[in-house]
Amino acid sequence: MTKTTDFDVIDHSRRPVIGVLTEPLRGELYTKANSRFKEDELIETPTASYVPKAHVQFLEQAGVRVVPIDYRLPLEERRNLLDQLNGVYLPGDSHVTVTDEAYKTAFVQTLAYVENATFENKEHFPMFLMGNSLHTLVRARQASGHNLADMTSLRFSNSRIEMLGNPNEYYFLNGLEREDKQALFNTAMFFNMQVSGVKPHDIETDK
After folding, report:
1. What are the CA-CA distances from residue 62 to residues 6, 16, 97, 204 (Å)?
2. pTM score, whole prediction
């Protein structure tokens, strides 16, 4: 019988604690009527926020303890919460996050916290960006770096694609055979729905 050392034992009670930034409520919230003859009642929730259940389940299945961080909290209270966590998770499910000023402020402040922990304090503090949160990050960077160009005039229009390198080096045409890629690249028109983009010069120079 072999002796078990301290290094052989996994302490399952010491799970990482990840904070999830709440999001503005999308849609409307109703109470269930007590009678089938009554209509459900609309609840006024102008300041409500939520965490998508699917993301909580995803994190918990990975062995993570989840703590909600209300984006409407004052900055110092949010910082105090982050100080007690092992990382932060930004779901980005709600399309409202892209336009909600209070959420964008909390998002940028959370990003600043993570950057300070990583680059200044040399601490490992991971940040997970999901869904629209990446879009919000790009918008936040645009506000400070001005590296996004307006292309509203090209929205809902067909355009030819000019790639910066060999099409085989990118996932843009992934799944197509070489001959199909060449034919598509030479003849196809692509429908654009974007309102902003990055110029090749900025890709080459932006850190």
Report:
1. 23, 10, 26, 37
2. 0.61
Q: Decide if domain 15-24+45-146 falls under CATH 3.40.50.880.
A: yes
Distance in angstroms (rounded) separating the CA atoms of residues 154 and 160:
12
Residue ranges of domains in the chain = 15-24+45-146, 150-205
Query: How much helix, strand and coil, in percent to the nearest 5, is found in the chain?
Result: 40, 20, 45
Which residues, at least 6 apart from 81, have a Cβ–Cβ distance to it below 8 Å?
A: 19, 67, 69, 73
What is the number of residues in the chain? Answer: 207
CA distance 94 to 50: 10
91 in Cβ contact with 51 (< 8 Å): yes
The CA-to-CA distance between both ends of the chain, in Å, stands at 57
Residue 103 has pLDDT above 60, yes or no: yes
Q: Are 25 and 17 in contact (CB under 8 A)?
A: no
108's CB contacts (< 8 A; 6+ apart) are 140, 143
pLDDT at 3: 42
Is the model's pLDDT at 140 over the cut of 50?
yes
Percent of the chain at pLDDT exceeding 90: 26
Q: Evaluate if residue 39 carries a pLDDT over 70.
A: no
Q: Would strands 29-31 and 41-43 be described as parallel, antiparallel, or unpaired?
A: antiparallel
Alpha carbon distance 82, 90 (integer Å): 13
